[in-house]
Amino acid sequence: MKRIEIVILYVMFIIFSGSAIFAANTELNGTLGTSYADDPAKYGLDISLHYNWLLDPYFVTGLESGFYWVKWDRKIGEKDVGGSSVDVKADTNAYVIPVMFNAQVRLPNLKDKLYVTPFATIGLGYSFMILHYSQPDFTDLNTGKSYNADSITKLFTGLSWELFFGASLKPAADSKVDFYAEAGYRSLPLKSGDLELDMSGLVIRLGVRYPL
């Protein structure tokens, strides 16, 4: 009997929580910035889109997804071009799509003192990454060995989390738009079979909010 009661209470909690969220006001956020990836030690382009539920002036929950692109290369040999030695490089492109559920705390009561509204965001989710590696065909100038062109594409996945701190500014009292800046850390340890690639690192973004 107790198990049935627990299940009923749990279902009621889910229904109540869902009703509370979907009855709240909503907003749409968009950001543009850069992210650092630990393993390639490179910065890349970071774009995100957020759909938020405003539970009250202080607490916000929402869904986030976006696109994170990092490109890097490495020298794999040398070849002769017109009597000159030229480096031959292999290119790697990583395309990451994170999907996060976020919780955010805003402090609008500090706006009169600071002229901005500070906020903190924590997110938990899952990320997908398509990794594409390519190299040209060439004959190495130093060894004389010939290499064929090669292209490899793999899918990496893994649990992700993020923590951001930022501040927003409304350009005018009657404006519906908020502009904001945020910086933080995103954990992206991703796997494909026995291969691992850590794309975690610093994230810096500029964004805009608009109520729906």
Provide a concise account of the structure shown.
The protein is mainly beta and 212 residues long. The protein has helices spanning 2-22, 111-114, and strands spanning 25-37, 42-54, 59-81, 84-106, 117-135, 138-139, 146-147, 150-169, 178-187, 189-192, 195-198, 201-211.
Question: Would you kindly provide a written description of the structure presented here, covering whatever features stand out?
Answer:
- The structure is a single chain.
- The protein has about 210 residues and is mainly beta.
- It has a single domain (about 25-210), classed as Porin.
- Helices cover about 10% and strands about 70% of the residues.
- It contains 2 helices and 12 strands.
- It has helices spanning about 1-20, 110-115, and strands at about 25-35, 40-55, 60-80, 85-105, 115-135, 140, 145, 150-170, 180-185, 190, 195-200, 200-210.
- The strands form 3 sheets. Strands 1-2-3-4-5-8-9-12 form an 8-stranded antiparallel beta barrel.
- The longest helix is centred in the N-terminal third of the chain and has 21 residues, at about 1-20.
- It is elongated, with a radius of gyration of 23 Å.
- The mean pLDDT is about 85.
